[in-house]
């Protein structure tokens, strides 16, 4: 599953735009594996990056001979069930799963290029399989081989899935919380599946400031937030599921209204989309739609500019 497919300023394709796989993309990858991998037998596993593999027992060779029986998602973790042995992956910022109609017969050279792991689901060099890859120099893609996904620390810490929450459950989850709403939405231990990009989209659709205090939303704001959460995520899932994996990142980009669109007009009101930058990420928002027309302060100030 490969890489990505007008206005005054073009969206910046850097780390701040955050084309990180989130709930909709990981759900689409799980769907793709359910359609193409389930029922096939693992014939070989090539580990090209030992740093990506976070478990040693059982070893990757324990997958060989097992039939793929399912594929699912835990927040932003992808879980391939091989007859009770789970290959769990967190794709992190720059990781991806690339489906191969035919795998290469020769084992990959360890430590060379973006490949972290290759799974063969048929005779090597003849049958299909998939690669787990990671671009860039910051290697954060992580793979676990476990009998129970709850053995993965990140899965064990997950809060309820973002798409599973009712409006009242969301209100209860946020009650009394003092952090910014943007921070709460992206806290995986509080709410699983939402990352930097879709939190921007949800807040824009809900007409809420990223700096709003999570536990101080009134009933109307909570109604808007829950409606936006459902509509943004289900819409993205609907657009993503069934897409060829190589087009998923491009599909994500095309569906975003404010995230990664700094300097472009808001598609709702026409105001200029603005940005607040942090050390390793940024957020985008529309002042007219979300903050009463006032620009947000940078990360050193937790208030609106006067």
Could you explain the architecture of this structure?
Keywords: DNA damage, DNA repair, DNA-binding, Glycosidase, Hydrolase, Lyase, Metal-binding, Multifunctional enzyme, Zinc, Zinc-finger. It holds the Pfam family Fapy_DNA_glyco. InterPro entries: DNA_glyclase_Znf_dom_DNA_BS (IPR015887), FPG_cat (IPR012319), FPG_N (IPR035937), H2TH_FPG (IPR015886), Ribosomal_uS13-like_H2TH (IPR010979), Znf_DNA_glyclase/AP_lyase (IPR000214), Znf_FPG/IleRS (IPR010663). With 306 residues, the protein is of the alpha+beta class. The chain folds into two domains: 134 residues, MutM-like, N-terminal (N-terminal domain of MutM-like DNA repair proteins, Alpha-Beta Barrel), CATH 3.20.190; 132 residues, Helicase, Ruva Protein, domain 3. Helices cover 25% and strands 17% of the residues. It contains eight helices and ten strands. Strands 1-6-7-5 form a four-stranded antiparallel beta sheet, with no helix packed on it. It has a four-stranded antiparallel beta sheet with strand order 2-3-4-8, covered by helices on one side. The protein has a two-stranded antiparallel sheet with strand order 9-10. Strand 6 and strand 7 form a beta hairpin. Helix 1 packs parallel to helix 6 and helix 5 crosses helix 6. The protein is elongated. The N and C termini lie far apart (46 Å). The relative contact order is 0.17. The N terminus and C terminus are likely disordered.
